[in-house]
Task: inverse folding
């Protein structure tokens, strides 16, 4: 039993070394959502095996602005598309270890619609 627990811990540790996560730095009004027309800030974690890579950000249903001082961060203004899902992706490219090229992390968000008051 102890041998199995040690093996499980080792496997989880190995997986976490390659895992990268996109974190939303802006607190939304409702968890898991974003509001269109207001900037939402994101950052991707960089595991130790991906430190010599470039990060290329892409967005669906929004417009991104890369942070010129930190490629780990990006700002997104989501389109006002009621009920749509916006997705942000960070892809690691030009890595010193070519086996790591193309590794990506993504995060999907429900876009809340902004309704004009008349």
Result:
């Amino acid at each position: 039993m102890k041998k199995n627990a040690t093996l499980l811990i080792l496997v989880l540790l190995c997986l976490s070394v390659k895992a990268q996560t996109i974190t939303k730095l802006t607190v939304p009004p409702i968890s898991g959502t974003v509001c269109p027309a207001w900037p939402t800030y994101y950052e991707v974690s960089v595991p130790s095996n991906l430190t010599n890579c470039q990060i290329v950000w892409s967005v669906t249903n929004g417009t991104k602005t890369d942070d010129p001082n930190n490629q780990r961060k990006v700002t997104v203004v989501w389109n006002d598309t009621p009920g749509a899902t916006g997705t942000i992706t960070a892809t690691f490219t030009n890595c010193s270890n070519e086996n790591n090229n193309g590794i990506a992390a993504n995060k999907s968000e429900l876009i809340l619609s902004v309704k004009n008051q008349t």
